[in-house]
């Protein structure tokens, strides 16, 4: 499954209407956000269809960021059946993200 870019307008459809979703709140100027992008690509290849990965550009979509209390980026929030169930802030390794996701599958 490919990583999906989500906007304020498509957030409820793409995230809240799905099973388990890892949402990356990021911005193009953010160094750690650029570092985590390839980690998310690898993770997406490994976990396949079991978890959807979505990205929200906080510069373009401030409503979603403020709605979920995103203060610094990257912030990754795990949603399960539309509800936020876990949150990590800052660069994470692939193994760390797998550990977070394993708690919610």
From TrEMBL:
Family listed: Belongs to the thioredoxin family.
Name of the protein: Thioredoxin
Organism per entry: Paenibacillus ehimensis
Family annotation (InterPro entries): Thioredoxin, Thioredoxin-like_sf, Thioredoxin_CS, Thioredoxin_domain
UniProt domain Thioredoxin: residue ranges: 1-105
CDD domains assigned: TRX_family
Entry keyword set: Disulfide bond, Electron transport, Redox-active center, Transport
């Amino acid at each position: 499954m490919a990583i999906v870019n989500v906007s304020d307008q498509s957030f409820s459809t793409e995230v809240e209407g799905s099973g388990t979703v890892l949402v990356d709140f990021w911005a193009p100027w953010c160094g750690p956000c650029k570092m985590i992008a390839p980690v998310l690509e690898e993770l997406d290849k490994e976990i396949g269809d079991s978890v959807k990965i979505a990205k929200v550009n906080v510069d373009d979509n401030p409503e979603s960021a403020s709605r979920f209390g995103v203060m610094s980026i990257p912030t990754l929030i795990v949603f399960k059946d539309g509800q936020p169930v876990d949150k990590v802030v800052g660069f994470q390794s692939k193994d760390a993200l797998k550990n977070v996701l394993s708690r919610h599958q």
